[in-house]
Design brief:
Blueprint: H1 19-30, H2 43-60, E1 67-71, E2 88-93, H3 96-104, E3 112-115, E4 128-134, H4 143-153, E5 154-165, H5 167-170, H6 188-196, E6 201-209, H7 211-258, H8 270-278, H9 282-290, E7 337-340, E8 349-355
Parallel strand pairs: 1-2, 1-4, 2-3, 4-5
Antiparallel strand pairs: 5-8, 6-7, 6-8
Length: 358
Amino acid sequence: MDTTADSVGPHRDSAAASSDVLEAIRLQAEEHPLIDDKAPETLSEKCLHLMHLKAYDEAGKHAQGRDVLDVGCNTGYGTLRLVAMARSVTGVDVSPAAVEAARTRPGGEAVDFRTIDGLGLPFPDNSFDLVTSFQVVEHVTDPLPYLNEIKRVLRPGGQALITTPNAAIRLDPGMTPWNRFHVREYRAAELEVELAKVFADVEVLGMFGVPTLYDLEIERVDANRRGVRKRLEAVAAREAAQAAAAEAKAAASAAKAALPTPAAKPAPSFTARVRRRLGRTPAGAWVRQALGSTPSKPATPAPAATANPSPTPAEPTVVAADTAPAVDFRLYTVEDLFYSGRDLDASMDLMALCTVES
């Protein structure tokens, strides 16, 4: 990608993009849910809402008097929080429906909302002082072009703020994301390595909160992780049983093939042929008695005992737990959340502050 030319993006040709990249963009543009202003119905929903808003409030500390671009603005619910501090605010998203909702939101006229193709940013180099991109990088199949585009539109000394879920609390090692819209989730160290490929100065922070909010979010994501773990274990057990059955069947077939061919049965004797021909007629009974070969009535075999087969366990489902009792949501605000550079693998969410060389 050309990151030095003074031309307007995008810098990637859609014809050159891989099918995986294009499908990921289509999924985000057409199927990803819009974030609305509906009042939270559970404390878990309120916690997620506050987590999203906290990132924008943190961005507000860096937006004073600056030209700001919000990449992945969704419906603009957070973008508008930057208007009071920034000199100008622009919001972009791949979802036309999200951008339309953002434009019609009260106060939306103060922001330049645009739909983008997801392959590049339609702005000249050095256009902004601050770029925010919250909960986006985990959706991106190829992060380097995305990050390079953010760097391209930043002025020297400009900053990028990027947030993403913390894989350390959400996924077992090697587990793929259970959110179907996520391509990859990052631990703090992994995120820093990825961002350092593009930005010279990267600082990663973690979000924490008061015990009620923190515990609720940890339990929510852990419930999803446990559900995925059980489903994977069930699939592995089923595949192992099928493999064992196939192996046993193959061994039985091999053993049967190795047995010697049985000798041909000798022709029936004269008396046997007489008994067969006479059958069970009175004369036949007399002949069989005379020949001393009246067969005894075979005993009726007892029915074999059968056990009721164990029912196949239901496929475990991924569950988002929310067992907290009803509470007054007004008790909690963004002030109950904070960022820290310590214990990042235990954090609720990750935020990276990336700075472009002056």
